[in-house]
Amino acid sequence: MSQVRRLWPLLTATHRYDKSLSTRHRGSGTIIQAPILAYLIETANGRILYDVGCDYTKLADPQQRARWYDAESFPFGPPEMHEDQRLPAHFARLGLTPADIDLVFLGHLHFDHAGGLCEVCGAEVHVHADELAAARAQADVAYFADDFAGDYRWKVQRGEYELAPGVHAIASPGHTAGHMSLLIELPHGAPVILAGDAADLEENLRDEVAPGLCWQEREDLALASIRKLKRLAAETGAELWPNHDIGFWERLRRFPEFHS
């Protein structure tokens, strides 16, 4: 029986970039505005955070901003992140602090998903072994070594498993080596599958288009993960949530409202 009580999507930043970064081989020349999200899951036995957004200091401090978001790697500029979008600000609106987060589950370790680890450094951090290895090897420019170099409580995983009753880790590699999605069984509504960056946009799911960036150019692996998530959604009756789709995000309940 699921122990999930509530699910909050948290807007942690936004990022403008060329659509081809989200949809492989299509959309070049079209600039989109993408939300950078984290998700807070309250269960009967604790709180789980899926992804943590960017490191605010790397964006707010001019020297760090210039170092980490150089024009060659980020020709469309860095994300926009405000003080009130930081994780502690979201938690405070719920009467919580970072110490109230028991487990952080990282779908992958790119800067816009793992940078905010410094805000929740007391929690246990789950990540796939292949993902951590790829990140430490700097497999692509979206890994910022400083984001995951701290003294965190790593729990390195392999395969699929249950984080808590009603919260299931789903392997969905392709965008990155060890990308993971999350199936959440809500107490009242349909289950939700957080696709993570296995599917940035609804278009990725509808048309079965791989993300623009694929680990070692494994478009086949990314497409297999999209199809796997779609099958799982059909089998469980789950809603399948893309991760960087501004139109989709605008249809979700706005924080501090929640899904249950």
Automatic annotation (TrEMBL):
Record GO terms (molecular function): hydrolase activity; metal ion binding
Keywords: Hydrolase, Metal-binding, Zinc
Cofactor(s) this protein requires: Zn(2+)
Residue ranges of every copy of the Metallo-beta-lactamase domain listed in the record: 35-244
Coiled-coil regions, chain positions: none
InterPro entries: MBL_superfamily_lactonases, Metallo-B-lactamas, RibonucZ/Hydroxyglut_hydro
SUPFAM superfamilies hit by this protein: Metallo-hydrolase/oxidoreductase
Pfam entry (one): Lactamase_B
Protein family per UniProt: Belongs to the metallo-beta-lactamase superfamily.
Record-given protein name: N-acyl homoserine lactone hydrolase
